[in-house]
Protein 1
Amino acid sequence: MGKYIMKRIGYMLLTLWIVVTITFFLMHSIPGDPLAHMAKNLPEQIKQNYYQKYGLDQPVIVQYGKFMKNLVTKGDLGESLRYPGRSVTETVLTNAKVSGRLGFQAIAIGITIGITLGVIAALNRNRWPDYLVMFIAILGITVPVFIIAALLQYTLSVKFELLPTTGWGKFKHTVLPTIAMCFGSIATYGRYMRSNVLEVINQDYVLTAQAKGVSPFNVVRKHVLRNAILPAITILGPQIAGIFTGSFVIERIFGIPGLGSYYITSINDRDYTMIIGTTVFYAALFVIAQLLVDLLYGVADPRIRVSKNSK
Amino acid sequence: MKSKKFLALSLALVLILLTVAGCGKKDNGEVTPPTDNNGGKTDEAATIDKEQYLNLYLVAEPSTLDSSKGSDMYSNRVLNNVLEPLTRLEEDENQNNFLAPAGAESWEHSEDGTVWTFKIRENTWSDGVKVRAQDYEYGIKRSIDQDTASPYAWILMPIKNASKVNSGELTVDELGVKSLDDNTLEITLESATPYFEQLTYQRVMFPQRQDIVEAQGDKYGSEPDTLVYNGPFTLTSWVHNSEIVLTKNDNYWDKDTVKLQNINLKIISDQNAIYNSLANGSFDSATVNKGEWKEKFMKDENLNHIEIVNPSINFMFFNTQDKVFKNANIRKAFTIALNREELADTVFYGVPAPAYGWVPPSINIGDDEYRQVAESPIKKLADENKDPKALLIKGLEELGMDTDPSKLTVKISLGGTDQWFRTYGEYLQQTYIKTLGINFEVEQMEWPVFDGNVKKGDFQIGYMAWGADFNDPINMLNLFKSDAPAIGTGWVNERFDELITLASSEMDSAKRLEYFKEAENILLYEDAAVAPVVYPREHVFRYKYVHDLGVTPFGTQGYKYSYTEGR
């Protein structure tokens, strides 16, 4: 097991290095530079001073060398070009915490409700609860999140003035964005669980359990759920990474200081250090989440536990 | 999402509002504070709300509060309220700007206009240290210093040796800025600069404390506790990308005038969220640029409506090196074939104003608004040429080309890829096919690609927006000077260059007005190198209980005089 994890970590580092390198050269090849957000034809001398200060006058390969050196030796992602004086690492971590809180709330609620609804739908196949759940699921998948968010904001905070329109800091600020964000997960998990449960429910072992007189609740809990949840874990990986990276749209609408906006704005601003920082962060989360999911499989299903003599 | 449109459209806004400039009184000694600030004070005190605060917003996160770095309007907005520039561009009840003393009590200039002496006011920094002339000196020097790499330093080039210091040829000690004593700042210019006063309230001239800057290093200005304040307010909290709180500065020299205790600035970029917040009272004031929301707020009796024309312009520009557009008559035909009123109403939903001149409204010359005293060259051009098609045919003849317009194909390049640009392109296509009978193609691309093509001269017609940095017509007209062209038309006119050079050092505003009028006439009427389209306009809606909150695009009075009554 230890060896397996070590090997996986080795692959993870390799993946990260490839991602960073590709991103680095790609972002330097898009037209424009960090001064472009000013959209003004600045005098040549001003540009020169700026490039020199931030090392942008050197060949890209030299910049890459410097960047990798700082990253590997000091774990330093550098200073944001768009927001002078702010360290990229700090910015990413601070904002990821905010996104993380919101994302965790949304995904916890989303998974719980989604799985429950999915099971209910499957057990009541082709009856009204099934239709109702699938209707909600289709809505959740097809209606864009910004529409849900705008509707929630308009009804709950403008019409009825129950919750603040925008802002961050208190629990009440998280209510609307959480509801808006969890719609998608509810829908996804609901549909997944429904089809998985339907598949499992006709298996022989379920029939056996029922024949043995196991109570319907325990049949679902011990035999159906455990087997049906496996495929759902697969989609959990990317979602865990997504928890911390936030949602650009939701953050924009509700004025939440999360990480999501940086993924878009840093590219538009050509804020090179921030582009790399956010990319490294997302890539790292993603590979770690994948590893966790693989380990989780083992917990949920003893059959695919990594065997000691697998290699 | 609409990043490209956002980018291209906000060029105007960002650019314009990068800085703020205004119309100064010519004689510094005569500047009088507006009466409504002092006059009715006792009456106000009796009726104004007990709790004085405002809830407002910024559309984007300020880049940095290091006044030498950064150049965005959002950090400018905060900086104007937390630091005390030499002067402030304040506004009276009719939204006319006037230059008022702020960090400088008074100032005077030598007869030839090259040496300016500012008497620095007694004031205290938020950490209790006395404000000295040296703080202003250091601020200016640091902005121009090559090592600071300030993107906005170019605006200070009229200062003696600024250009050489910025390129590293000379050290900062040789810059024409020095403090004679703790209360006297002397600035020497390269040559007389009629608009120098308009630079005295720009962020790159703001005071900075050398000890704080050096102690903080690169972090200076990135967090509230990395700098000290000497303006009407201090920055008490800054949650990045979320909220900024300004609190009254009790060390401020004019603290008795300041009535607001707190200003909460939410950082929110979503338009609908802003309008929703105004609608439910979470914001006290908002700028509304969407037609349908504008209608809704117009009907709200609790709101005041203020219309503001930004000192910026959206325009088409021609590649005068192109085989077709090298002909002035063809450019004129394209200029007058547009119905600007209709365009402003349909494509822009009636938000902006049609543009018939180059220098946008709200830019002053002397004490007058330039547009009020100068004629509109495009109107004259259109009046004298009723038939644009005839002009086009005349131009084609002059070029020795086929005079059948239907055989001519012309392409416009747009630096934005979203729906708005598509609509705009389609509108132009329809108009030009109908009025000129030509074939008209529209090409959309991302802004950086467009920008690159224009620099290479690889386009026929382009479309752009530009905003003024400071309040003087020269700031808009010198964009076409052939030694430093900012807009890629490839257009060169000797007389135009000469006029701009003359206006740059002439101190008499009546003479300057004549130079500018002639230059604008050459640019638009005689040569038609660019075709102005609209002047962007903004609609500000504000609850009636809000008073004296700065609203003019150039003005820098900010929240200093504001208060609420009857909230």
Protein 2
Amino acid sequence: MKRPKALILRGSATNCDIETANAFAYAGACSDLAHINEFLSGKKSVLDYDILAFPGGFSYGDDISAGKIFSVKLEKIAAGLEKFIKDKRPVIGICNGFQIMVKAGLLPQNKGRARTATLFTNDCGHFLAKWIKLKVNTKSPCIFTRGLPSEIELPMAHGEGKFITRDSKTLATILKNNLHVLTYADNPNGSMADIAGICCVCGTVFGLMPHPERNFFSWQHPDRKKVKEALAVGYQFFKNAVEYVR
Amino acid sequence: MELLLSKFSTLNHKQLAALDKKYGWSLNLLELEAAQRYFKKLKREPTRGELETIAQTWSEHCKHKTFSGPVKFRSGRKVKRYKNLFKETIVKATRRLNKQWCLSVFKDNAGVVEFGAGGKWALAFKAETHNHPCALEPYGGAETGVGGVVRDIMGVGLGAKPVLNTDIFCFGRLDSKMKLPKNALGARRIFDGVVEGVRDYGNRMGIPTAAGAVVFDDGYALNPLVFVGCAGIIPRDKIHKKVSPGELIVVIGGSTGRDGIHGATFSSANIAEDTSNSAVQIGHALNEKKALDVLLKARDKNLYSAVTDCGAGGFSSAIGELASECGAIVELEKAELKDTAIEPWEIWVSESQERMVFAVPPKNLKRLAEIADGENCGYCVLGRFTGDNKLRVTFKGESVVALDNAFLHGGIPNYEKNAVFLSPATCNLPPKKIKKPYHQVLKSILSHPNVCSRRSIVSQYDHEVQGGTVVKPFVGPGQNGPSDAAVIWPQAATGDMKDFSGFAAAHGINPAVGRINPYLMALYAADEAVRNLLCVGADITRTALLDNFCAGSPKDPQVMGGLVLAAEGCYAAAMGYGAPFISGKDSFYNQSTDAAGRQYPVPLTLLISAVAPVEDIRKSFSMNLKRPGNPIYLAGTARKGMGGSIYNELYPSGNNALSGLDIKDSFKLYKALLSAMRSGYVMAAHDISDGGFAAAAAEMAFGGDFGADLCPELCFAESGISETELLFGESPSRLLLEVDKKSESDFLSLVSSLQVAKAGYVNNRAELIIINARGKELVKEKNAGLLACWERDLL
């Protein structure tokens, strides 16, 4: 069977890139870990790939605000990205990747790619890393979360994860169309409507704050007694993308 | 002063001392005289840059002259002399053990041991202190401390990928009533700043900070200790470096400024009210991450033949070290600068952060430059390595330094330090009876700052980045159980998700024991570190250790006496557990002087960090109770003595005795338990340390959803032991184990000849009950109540 090509797009101080590449490779993709500079210089093109992932980390030190600098760099390859999304090739942003996508206007989906939301400093005022329970919106069109149970556990690790929309209309559109793919069972950062992850209307563009690549195998879970199956819920996110492309 | 410098070789003692004080070199008279003799021989006067280079190279920080110097130890009438204390204790154990899996010890930026199956990888481990900077500027000091130890791992061999950060802090108590001298920072300010610094740097570097400890004690109120450790994975065939003449000196990473002038020499001095904080560097994690990305790419393309980090002493130490067996020519005007007002000698000794120095064959320069450009990482070619064993540094043609390697690296004079140790009086009367019921004592122990939850700190660290933190700081269904050790599966370094090799990292530290007996402090610390590794299922027969000593001024014979005893303890522990030391560091002058001239030294503190392989990370253990009905066993013997315990701090018992530690017996016990764990008989293991048996049992209970019914009196104990000692005593070498009911008889046959006895059972009531042999309830408390005491916020 064809191994789809997954681009793990990194910048300086993106730091969840290798485990994300490992996860896609394990799920059946051919992972390419590449720096945004190679796309800005025209050496590579996003259109040569089937799946695009923005991994977590602190791209460009999260200077100015989380994901901001990386999102500005994306403007230079906006045309390629636009086509990639229009082709319904899957795009996922995890943690810092989600912050980048929101700040680039890729999510929440809107015509002019305007910034209609942000991910702001957690209500607690600092970085917070812990395992959390998430509700999966089974009515959402998201292709990455297909087949997941209605409640899952993933670790979160961020300082700026409070999802806020520009206006109530943006939030209403998300909720009405079931674009809120994941919501926190116990809101850890003050996000509107407990939102932890959102997608576009056709379900192929998806961003989330928690880390599915860190609950990929059962032995990554803090409660070791539950270890029975080797694969954990995080695997499903990556497997779904690979199968969708095939 | 310039005048004095121009007459350096003719100065008298008083003038030399004045010059040293003025320039902040922290050189002693013997060293200054050696320098005088050298320049007399050369028939010229030194430049400022040359004396600065000597001061950096001979500093306590770079040379560890106290620990590796001669010592005369007097104990009663007996006198023992050491030519080199470090070599005759800690290094001696490593040499005698001669483990084949030790690949590089004591010579590089970190110790290196074998890792995983197949001989493809190795593990590098190192711990550093950044105490002086953290006392002056906690946030910046902690950040650059993390940055520095990460660069040590980047600079070991041809460069390792960091996969774990550790952090251990010793602070003054947050509720301290101590009156601090003018300008001293309060404990709260230091605590917050250090935690934030470790968080912001470690998280941005993408390295999980997943193991550590915090000790609160007013002995650290003016001089906090901040230990930062890092472990990295390196290809087995890249653990050695070799510089060849003709290779280029290439610097990558951050640019050079006036921050951190004299960081190395300042660590050889006590902190006074007027100490300048320009000695503290300024960190920027983004630059270090870029340097790391460039380094790993260039390493895998074999573009350089040696690398080291710019740490204390800046270029002078890094280039001096790489050139120590060949020589170098350096042109300082080629350095990337962030400050135009900088003097040439300042460029040479500046400790600006995030810089790595490579030896690059000229033909590879272009490819290295391409990689650096691709990562937006700065670089410059600063000169080249030569074969004449001379260090020549110029700025636009003008000589800044021209010194011989032989003098610079071999010319340091040393003198014998006096050491004595006067043991404090110990009392081994039975602990005083108190009115407070045991369950309330237990609750107050659980909420003691040295026992209570570290969640508010740990949750600020990204302890799971790289996706390989298999045993996390908190385990169990509600993540309420404090782990004994971290287990790391370095999939992000090996790139192989089907290789399940991992390693465990743990610590032992106990300054309260050290106050009574430094020798036992070392034994206890090593024992605790090994036991912690055992609790997660690591192969303790392959434990590698790091020693980090912190003390006051080595000019005080009592400080040196404690050091000698602790170093001897390290030797005994390493030999007993077959666990070689592979690297270490020491930090002296952790001492403050107030305006009235009063001295505040830290208590002698020894941190022992330990790593051991975990063959299959999928089979590692967590400490929370797993299944009602399972028996709970106590391994080891409870011994008399409340010395150094948390109990004694809360309720002075009048008994400050410490029990001895029979390493041979303990190690035999641990090996048997490891084989029981590997056979699948054990469900959970937890070590008994701070707070004793009762605290360990409580942690296992609230770490899971179940409680326990226990009777410690039925287990092995020294005869005549009191209830207080049984419940709250902290005698070493003990663990609690939950054994799978189905395998109980197999378990017993494995440990039949050992001191392992059933203490009770896991219950399904989420309640801890401890009774005595007559059936009287000593403790009866719901998990929730115990957890509430333990979960108090520190931040």
Protein 3
Amino acid sequence: MIKTIIAEGLPVDEQLLIRKKVIQNGQSDKRICIVTGTHGDELEGQYVCFELIRRLNENIEFLDGTVDVYPALNPLGVDSVTRGIPTFDLDMNRIFPGDPNGHLIEHTAYEIIQDLKGANMVIDIHASNIFLREMPQARINVKMSKKLIPFAQLLNIDFIWIHEAATVLESTLAHSLNVIKTPTIVVEMGIGMRITRDYGDRLVDGILNMMHKMKMWSGPVSKTISKPKLSTTGDVYFLNADVSGIIIPSVSHSVDVKKGDLLCQIVDPFEGKVLQNMLSPIDGLVFTLRTYPVVYEGSLIARIFADKKAEENL
Amino acid sequence: MKQEIIFSMKSPYRDDFKIQGFRFGEGEKSIAIVGAMRGDEVQQQFTCSQIVKNLIELEKAGKLIPGHEILVIPSANHFSMNINKRFWAMDNTDINRMFPGYDKGETTQRIAAAIFESVRGYKYGIQLASFYMPGEFIPHVRMMETGFQDVKLAKKFGLPYVLIRKPKPYDTTVLNYNWQVFDTQAFSIYSGDTDTINKETAKMAWLSILRFMNNTGIIQNSMHEGFNSSILKEGDLETVISNQSGILYALRSAGDEIKAGDLLAKILDPFTGETRSSILAPTNGTIFFAHQKPLIHQNTVMYKIVKF
């Protein structure tokens, strides 16, 4: 069943429609929600929605409970290659929990929260942006970490990044839901405007694995669920460009690097000169890597996770 | 006046990006004024340029009171303004969500850090701001209710209204909030429009800033005292929400006095021109904010009204 959450008039012969697919079976009142498409240029979640719904439909007898899938919280953005909300020009993930008396989009954010409220788990899938490729990872506010880490460890991802509480993040969907005691995990993976099928398959395996542990899924689950590294066991290093130019990559994403390894070069194509050699400052795992070649001073090039235990063993 | 470069950065192929500051006088850091931080803030850029023009004339006339330093940064994002983008030209991030900035962080964090390093420590800080919803305002001073706000000072601008609002989570990353955290009395001036120049409201805005400087003893410039500002809280405003979508045929605009039952606007069917909805004033008052675009969504803010 497809249920319409929002139907509000746009100026000329169109409605803003936000819809969810409801898949239900059995007697359990447990409910999980898969949401994505908040940023219209992040499309990795589209494959996850497709594949999860396909597998559930083909094996519905194993489901005990409800799975709500929201493929596009920002349908105008997804359908027009726009990260934000067309006509509103603000980041949708900075206006939650919304406002029933505000602009249409603030009202929409409010209604989305009302619809998700009370779920046993919400997985909020993001896909970085068009500049950076991310390893499959969960991002969890330190305040929510105790409750959410055990669930995130079931999702077949590579990394769990526990981040400090930042006030600005209080206006995200995940934070707004967590404060009303609807547990929500943000998954970041892949890159904007693309679909990485392998990552999508892994996350679907992970969601079914989590549902199995929640006793909502009695069907087969993957036997090779990844054990993610936890950011609190090490340090995250940020590498930013010192100069503006064009980057030429030297390493692949998701690889282990050694201190001093060349990650990429920033070059000046006019002069044929190398402006900067970006070297790894540490032994570690490249879990974020820039793929968009044009950079300004300050552009993020990579994030590297260095495991303290690994360092101690050197 | 000393013209200086506050921040500069090379671009792969475009001309260098430079943020320019205009510094007047010497002594106590008295007032810093920041104009356009978004690429569509043309009204804000224009208003700031007129402040610079006026200060240059006042300096020549010997009307800047000695012992005060004034810094004006008319534009912090012309890399976006020059190509008709609202947010940062490369990654679409908002400089006014990056304060206090980080000089080793991402590009817009570095820009925010450089601006903040230049404008922190001033006694007063003024930002020429724009609103996230398309529309026109009565020119007003806006302050956040942080516990540091000084309403009496805000009245020295002599604008019709001073609006006090509660901070939202994202506000901790805007310039105004960070100014206040670092002991600057901060004000946002809303001069009505954003991506078009409204000469009348822009003039009200720049005159109000000169009036504020006059009233706080930074310049000596005899001028009209302005309005005895009314103090408002956001909750005092009555909101009118659209019950239909379509073409907006607005009949009343910001600043108009209205009576309950007055016809404010019609929402028209975009195919037949028939009236889908007649929007009536719910109360006596003055229109504080009016939606300005010719098309309107359903269930969105059309008017905000100061009730009498």
Protein 4
Amino acid sequence: MTDLSKQMADWLRALSSLDASKGSEQLLNALARLEVPGLNMDALVASQRDNLEAINAANRAAMDGVKAVGEWQLKILQETVQGMMTAVGGLSGVGSPQQLVAAETELAKKAFETAVSRMRELAEIVARANQQAADAIVKRVPASLDEIRDVLKLPPPPGA
Amino acid sequence: MSRHMMNNHWARSLTIAAAGALAVAQGVAAAPALEDVITGVQIDPAQISVSGISSGGFMAHQFHVAHSERIMGVGVVAGGPYYCSAGSILDAVTKCSQFVMLECRQLGLDAKWCSRTDLAPKNDRDARRVAQASFAEAKRQEAAGTISRLAGLKGDKVYLISAEYDAIVPHGVMDAVFHFYADADKAGVEAGNIAYNRTFPARHTMVRDAFNKPAADVVGNCALPPAPPPPTDRNAFIDDCEPVAKQRQGRDRCVCPSAPAVAANAGAVCPPAGKEAVCRDLQDVDLAGAMLRRIYGEQALKGGRVAVAEGEVKAFDQRSVFKKFSDIPYNDLQNASMAREGYIFIPASCRDGRKCRLHVAFHGCLQGGMTDHRSGQSGNLFAKFAGYNEWAQANDIVVVYPQVQVRNGTLQSPPVNPQGCWDWWGQYYTHAGYHTQGGQQIRAVAQMINTLAGGQELLPVPAR
């Protein structure tokens, strides 16, 4: 039994550090069977497992978002380098210094416009990523409110 | 501010917060237990059937095999044969479906390499071989006493469909289901009892028609290749294919003139020779109806269809189902990846003491529980809009919609069920025995049926 209690202590530590990967089905089930007066351990463990999974999912969604942002940056970098090379090639044929300034200004304006539209794209990616992460947590809210009564063995509301 | 005042302030805030939380908690009280939802309902124990789509199709067939002594009919939409995955997630996504190949292509990897991950049966010989292995496993489980005696499959009614453009579950996999039921050296179900629709023009979806179709865009428009499928996050996998079917009926000259016109037009064969099967398949534009008709017979469905409001589908607490056989119902519900709420449709007529039929409809992946929260939609779309309830209302059929949902478990702490599918592979999910009467999901659904049958143990629900 020492083994089990040690495992349990490990699991509780994992729980407190919110590391979902350390729980195991058997241990969670064993914990859920513990009898603690005034507490529905089955509901409590189930509720904690839901919380861990929600955070797990949120992290995963956020990671996807980070990856998307990374891919976007790479794309911008490639486009910028390509754009610069073309532009430099084009500028060599420009005659007077005034014409060169005008051409450069035009180039800068276009680059700015592109950057703005790309920034908007990036903002959308980030917003979407956060939305997904937030959704995973938000989906838990109604369920966890419902759990307060279950965990504390509160009587059902009148008329329910 | 004194310490005393500060404490008071904190205590007050906490009390208000707690009261607020409880007030909201009361607003989201759990759904009633199944037995409280079904008061007055009586089920005819000889008229219990199942059907499902995709992973729900796998489950419907699996449930039928596990409990064939009590289940008298089955409908399988894009599912696969019993124990197809042989308990392996890898086999599930390569031999029994094309998930890996589709993912591979989506990632833009080499098409030739991707096609090597498609290990599904390609011809009739392959399909028979898969069916052979599948039935051999059923025989093993029968001998071990973990499923019904397979003789129970005899005389049962079977409807199968593998739509023409299904890219997720290939035809060969459904062909194996057909051979499982039809071959004399396997289940040997009578030929007249089996219908197999192999040509209906649709993708991987629950086909329905326009009858009682909800407003807005809940139900898709059955887009066929080369048109792209709707984006997955907006695809309910329920499609109105009536216009497509009508168009094909015209093209294939399936619409036959009435008798006097035939006389005037002597010589013309209708439908044209060689098109009989295609024309027959095109009639199944309302799949729920086609399945129920095959299972219960034309006569039993003579009441036709009536419109049903979506609010008529009621929720019940699936945890209370687990309480009947588990000492940790909350956790066992999670272990089984099942949602807190299941749904049921009960025709008003079934409360007056008459014996009603019972049909269990299994949703597909991404269609169940909390997984089915598509933006702008009300959720629970399969139970509301798959097309069963309209027939059920007019023909004394109670329809139960058990629900599974996504679980983000880890390999160390399963279940791993990222798409919210019914379990037909076991590994990292509900484990070995998932395809027997002792399977975690099969037990729960059997318990629902028992509760509906007045609490008797009609179907065995073995202790673990």
